[in-house]
Amino acid sequence: MMRPVIAGLLLLTIVIAGCNQPARNEVSTGRYQLAVDGQGNAWQLDTVTGDMKRCWQGAPGIRSPICYKVTQE
């Protein structure tokens, strides 16, 4: 009779412990920064590599979003 209760408590403890772990997702840890300009461009900066991309939102049904790597010359 106690085995299902103990198993349930153990499972609950594992779930709660897993939820308390820090996020490992690169987006949620602040690796990327995003800015938007008035012309529909989104600018994405990778704070680890320094790479920057310019992304255009596209046009529904006509063109999908496109991203270009920005280079400095």
Automatic annotation (TrEMBL):
Q: What keywords is this UniProt entry annotated with? A: Signal
Hey, what's the signal peptide range on this chain?
A: 1-17
Superkingdom of origin: Bacteria
Name this polypeptide is given: Lipoprotein
- Please tell me the species this chain comes from: Ralstonia pickettii OR214
